[in-house]
Amino acid sequence: MADCIFCRIIKGTIPCEKLYEDDRVISFLDINPASPGHTLVLPKAHFATLFDIPEEELKVCATAVQKIARAVLSATKAPGLNLLQNNFPAAGQLVHHLHFHLIPRFHDDNLRLLPGKNHPGTGHDKILARIRAELQATG
Ligand code: 5GP
Ligand code: ZN
Fold this sequence. Notes:
Elements: H1 5-11, E1 18-21, E2 25-29, E3 39-43, H2 55-76, E4 80-84, E5 100-105, H3 124-138
Antiparallel strand pairs: 1-2, 2-3, 3-5, 4-5
Bound molecules: guanosine-5'-monophosphate (5GP) and zinc ion (ZN).
């Protein structure tokens, strides 16, 4: 897609600090890292979100994510790593080309990636039942 910044990086018209590339997947450092070694992994084909990518392509991405995450963990010597993937603006998605964040984590780094709050009284049981019903309906 011409107006997609990640498609331009894939095409080579915008530079990146490339870590890995094959015919389906590319990986480079995030320009605005949440921690040292913050890495992005994405399919070369343009899919806006998790909900748009075909299952086979997603499997290819998952395999690359695991391989690259191992290298990031080892290279940074981080004792932890978060895998993050944002869908739609409400979830903080800024670049509308599906991508996975690999974020090395360190003890006491004070990074807050999720609110981690409880929301009592917001229909937990109803949501549980609805999601189970959706999963049953879709097999
Ligand atoms: P999102 O919020 O969409 O999940 O994350 C987009 C990420 O892409 C952000 O962490 C942001 O720093 C990164 N980013 C945006 N533009 C560029 C760019 O031109 N180059 C690189 N390497 N990362 C980018
Ligand atoms: Zn794109």
